[in-house]
Amino acid sequence: MLQLPPQGSSVAGPMTHAKSCQASKHEGTTLPGPLPRLIWMSSSSSIDEKRSASSSSEKHDTIAVETKNIDTAAELLNGDEGELDPAEALRVRRKVDLHIMPMMCGLYWIQFMDKTTLGSAAILGIREATHLTTNQYNWLGTVFYLSYLAFEIPQNLALQRFPVGKWLSINIFVWAVALCCHAACKNFAGLLICRLLLGMCEGSITAGFLIVTSMFYTRNEQTLRVGYWFLMNGAAQIISGFLSFGTLHIKTRGFEPWQWLMILTGLITLIAAISFWFLFPDSPTSAWFLTKKERAIAVRRIKVNQTGVENKTFKKEQMYEALQDPKTWLIALFSASVMVPNSLTNQRQIIVSSFGFSNLQATLLGCVDGVVTITTIWSGVWLAARIPNSRAYIAILYTLPNIVAVFLINFLPWSNKIGLLFAQWTSGLVTNYVLALSWLSSITAGHTKRVTVNAIALCAYCIGNSAGPFMWQAQYRPRNHVPWTVIGVCHVVCICCLGVLRIHLARQNKIRDQEPVDHTYDDVHIERVVDGVVEKIKVDKAFLDLTDIQNRRGALLPSAQRSLDAPSAIHVKRLHHHRIQSVQAGKNCMASNVVVKLHIQLWMERCSASLE
Questions:
Q1: HSE-CB of 402 using CA atoms within 13 angstroms
Q2: What distance in Å separates the CA atoms of residue 272 and residue 113, rounded to the nearest whole number?
Q3: What is the pLDDT of residues 440-458, one digit of tens each?
Q4: How far apart (Å, rounded) are the C-alpha atoms in residues 388 and 189?
Q5: What is the per-residue DSSP string for 64-94?
Q6: Are 67 and 37 spatial neighbours (Cβ–Cβ below 8 Å)?
Q7: Cβ neighbours for 144, distance < 8 A, ≥ 6 positions apart
Q8: Residues 186 and 163: beta-carbon distance below 8 Å
Q9: Across-strand partners of 39?
Q10: Which residues of 399-414 are buried (b: 16+ CB within 10 A; e: fewer)?
Q11: Helix, strand or coil for residue 40?
């Protein structure tokens, strides 16, 4: 367990390894000798003051703890506090983008495509082939999220305990097999088991991606990156529409189009599982595509987050803090509310068919949903990344079209098919959820706390998705006034949650601004003995695995820290331009010096000639 000194306490200066062990014994804590340790040192006094304090009769407490309680990146940096070269930081970020973003985007596309196979299969004949009633079909959508909910906390604990990339790969493999098994199902019971397995495995994906994104990217970069892999939901809707259209034309005896859809998507997922096992990194400290120097740069880049990389030790005190933090429950209420409308995922093509379009037309029109999703997510995260402290406002702005769409669908004449179709396309914008996800990962620090908050938020996500399908009952057709009204109310709740969270964070930031600077964790060292020599490596506060409440330096509105972030491409170009100008100025200066020297030399020669 990591023991932290009380704020404002003064602790002894550098000690030998033997003295450290002795001090620990004096406090009643027995620590094995060969383990690396941390020496907590006060930074509120100068080095000379520390020396005089250690030589005086005044007694100071020294707290030594094992290095397993700090961030995994601490020893990689080896106490290096040199200036980060902007060009190097940008080069490493681009290398990270090149290697992990395509894989994350690809898997998120596959995940959403696999999740929506039930909706696509509905118009390809799965309901008739497996004799599903309306209630049973709704249960297949719900049981997926019930399984997701049941396994979300175990999945998050496993993501902290095991290498992230390998754990994701195992889940993707099981999920691929379960998807292929759909094709062999003949009744509701078989499909129910397959959907349970899918929900169990998918619980690792979003949670894992949030962890990986916070490991590799700064706060401002996270908004765009979360948006990039989340907008692949839209790409999945487009590709799934064309894939369904293609399988609709497959005519084989004894094997129906919906079965081909399950087999094809399952094989694609299987390829993704193998690729992730060999190519996806577990963290910046072990990324195979980075050199040792680049790994250190990758870690130093995210120092500004004040959230560290990861810690494999589960800390109960961080879990309790997460449960008591108002941010956790505001995000949870928002996640549950925003996901009730997500029940449209499995209902869209059925709803479009009810407007009078054929199955073939409904399949192709489903591609438009994907275009709308891509456009709105991309524009939303682009704006949020460029306007400081705007995530809440932009999320609220992108929630308003959903409310307008609900009014149109409820009150437009049933004969206005085109108007209803356009309203249906704009009724499921999820930009607000994408911005909330990126917000969540940037305002939560402490690895155990982050994992706990992610688990709670995704459990709420499951509750909303589980409840949603039961709104769509046969007695409400064709207008479905009750489900659409519930969806509208949920969007209003989302706006309220976002507004309250924004006010809460702004108030907390104001409180922190008025507090005196906290130096409690400013001077911390790892102490280790190598060949009888005591080595001390300084550990930055950002890598002590402190929570956002313990670390008062971190701002809760990340854009307020914008000036501390790693440089953007524009900044690097400007810096390069200034360097070129400086070099050119230097060259001009050198040329001027040469001319002056020549003039002086000629003048001296003339003087000597006149003297002769």
A1: 32
A2: 13
A3: 877 888 878 888 898 899 8
A4: 51
A5: EEEGGGS-TTHHHHTT--PPPPHHHHHHHHH
A6: yes
A7: 115, 118, 195, 196, 198, 199, 202, 465
A8: no
A9: 64, 525
A10: bebbbebbebbeebee
A11: strand
Residue 32: CB atoms within 10 A of its CB come to 8
Bond into 36 cis (ω within 30)? no
Strands across the sheet with 533-539, in order?
Answer: 64-66, 37-41, 523-530, 533-539
Cβ within 8 Å of residue 24, ≥6 positions away: 30, 31, 62, 63, 64
The long-range contacts involving 147-150, CB below 8 angstroms and separated by at least 24 positions, are: 147/195, 147/196, 147/197, 147/198, 147/199, 147/200, 147/203, 148/199, 148/200, 148/202, 148/203, 148/458, 148/461, 148/462, 148/465, 149/199, 149/459, 149/462, 149/463, 149/466, 150/200
**Residue 599, Cβ density class (10 Å: 0-12 exposed, 13-18 middle, ≥19 buried):** exposed
Separation CA 75–CA 40 (nearest Å): 16
pTM of the full structure: 0.68
Q: What value does the mean pLDDT of the chain take?
A: 76
Task: Classify 108 as helix, strand or coil.
Answer: helix
Selection from 453, 551, 526, 520 nearest residue 80 by Cα = 526
Distance between start and end Cα atoms, the chain = 91
Give residue-wise pLDDT tens across range 228-269.
Answer: 998 888 888 888 878 887 887 887 877 888 899 999 999 999
Tell me the torsion sign for CA atoms 434, 439, 441, 442: positive
Q: Which two tokens stand for residue 246?
A: 């293609």
Instruction: Annotate 68-88 with b (16+ C-beta within 10 A) or e (fewer).
Output: ebbbbbbbbbeeeeeebebee
Q: If you count them, how many residues does the chain have?
A: 612
- Structure tokens belonging to residue 381: 């995260």
DSSP state of 468: G
Instruction: Assign residue 567 a region (left: φ > 0; alpha: ψ between -120 and 50; beta: otherwise).
Output: beta
pLDDT (tens digit, 9 = 90+) per residue, 359-417? 777 777 878 888 898 999 999 999 988 888 888 999 999 999 999 999 998 899 888 88
**What is the C-alpha radius of gyration for the chain, rounded to an integer number of angstroms?**
30
Distance between alpha carbon 94 and the CA centroid of its chain, in Å? 18
DSSP state letter for 565: S
DSSP H helices, 477-568, are: 481-514
Q: Is 245 exposed, middle or buried (0-12, 13-18, 19+ CB in 10 A)?
A: middle
CA-closest candidate to residue 481, choices 538, 406, 430? 406
Q: How far apart are CA 391 and CA 403, in angstroms?
A: 19
* Cβ atoms of 241 and 261 closer than 8 Å: no
The separation between CA 102 and the C-alpha centre of its own chain, rounded to angstroms, equals 15
What is the DSSP pairing of strand 64-66 with strand 523-530?
Answer: unpaired
Residue recorded with tokens 């962890």: 211
Angle 445-448-450 from CA coordinates, rounded to 5°: 45
* Closest listed residue to residue 270, CA positions, set 176, 201, 204: 176
For residues 486 and 216, what is the distance between their CA atoms, to the nearest angstrom?
A: 39
* Residue given tokens 């902290």 in the structure block: 160
pLDDT of residue 65: 44
Residue 535 carries which side chain, given as an amino acid letter? E
Count of CA atoms in the C-beta half-sphere (13 A) of 547: 21
What's the one-letter identity of residue 489?
A: V
The model's confidence at residue 491, banded by pLDDT at 50, 70 and 90, is very high
At 307 the pLDDT is 54
CB 280 within 8 A of CB 74: no
Dig out the tokens for 565 from the structure. 């972030």
* Burial (CB count <10 Å: 0-12, 13-18, 19+), residue 601: exposed
